[in-house]
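Second attempt. The first submission of GNAT family N-acetyltransferase had a stray character pasted in from the spreadsheet, which I only caught after the job came back as garbage. Lesson logged: always re-copy from the clean sequence file. Corrected sequence (214 aa) follows.
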Amino acid sequence: MRPADLATFDSDLGIARARGIRRVVLERDTPKWVEAELRLRGWTVEDELRLELAGDAQLAGSPPQVDVRAGSQVDPDWRARGELLRADHIEEDTRHGVPARAPAQTAAIVEHRRALEGFAPYLCAMEDDEIAGFLCTWTSPTGVGVIEDVYVRPSSRGAGIATALLHAAVTALRTAGAGRIVIAAEIGDTPAQRYARVGFRPDHVVRSCVLAGS
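This time the job returned cleanly.
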């Protein structure tokens, strides 16, 4: 977020809120007053660990035998992914000790993600003909591959599904011509350790402002 003035800030924030977005990344060139304005409005600051896989690197080890398919193929109407995104949001809010976001906020994010399907596709891991987990991949205009929205339902964890999804994502991004690949994780959370074990290396800490509650 890099608004030039308060009017642009309010416009950008309004668009983000309408889409259900509750996290604003504070980039290195984000004006200092933006964080101050967000803090004044009740947003809190969180840190995330940004990890990176070098442009010529592959993930360590062999991927677990998991059926990974394109989300557009197995869930074209986004019903299953919408349910998992809702579960992810509730789990995240519970972990942070804040009230669960309104279902409408999850619905707005689902519609936003659905609109971007052609640019930022999801990969889904299947288990008993149901989606057990997913992640999103996309490539920036500068050729940086991005992996985000990694989620596996609790009942399917510990079976290598997240690792299989990561391998599939790296393969897809490499095929699309991506160079280095980045992924983010909450500091101290289990996923950060998993990403490091398969080859992602810590690069820097990202500060974000997050809006709790509805």
